[in-house]
Amino acid sequence: MSGLLERLRGRGWRMTSQRRVVAEVLDGDHVHLTADEVHARAVGRLPEISRATVYNALGELVALGEVVEVSTDGRARRYDPNAHRPHQHLVCSGCGIIRDVHPTGDPLAGLPAEERFGFTVATAEVTYRGLCPSCAQR
Ligand SMILES: [Zn+2]
Ligand SMILES: [Zn+2]
What we know:
- Belongs to the Fur family.
- Keywords: DNA-binding, Metal-binding, Repressor, Transcription, Transcription regulation, Zinc.
- This protein has 138 residues and is of the alpha+beta class.
- It contains 5 helices and 6 strands.
- It folds into 2 domains: 4-80, Arc Repressor Mutant, subunit A (Orthogonal Bundle); 88-136, Ferric-uptake regulator, C-terminal dimerisarion domain (Dna Ligase, domain 1), CATH 3.30.1490.190.
- It has a 3-stranded antiparallel sheet. The chain has a 3-stranded mixed sheet with strand order 5-4-6, with no helix packed on it.
- The longest helix is centred in the middle third of the chain and has 14 residues, at 51-64.
- The two termini are 31 Å apart.
């Protein structure tokens, strides 16, 4: 598990039943949900939870640094609770499943000085794409 709930408790995040459901939906490994997916799952546990409540809670979690926004397809922003262990993403081009992966070596170090154009480079995101085992069998 990503330990999101424990981290939030440790930080004294005000845990109403609605906010707890948002955190529970996001907790876990390899979780990369869009805001709409978080809302749909939250409604399954707490039918009255509103989209606005979910969006506000997501914004707070991102501001706290406990959830990171990732975009692996250039479209919908996804929310990732694995905020404290740097990782990259492995994405299936067939079904879209996303795995957290930890490549060896520092992707930042792979960019030579002459290709930095004077930038102070802070982060690098690498997305590995391919077919997952079940899509590869089809
Ligand atoms: Zn797949
Ligand atoms: Zn991730």
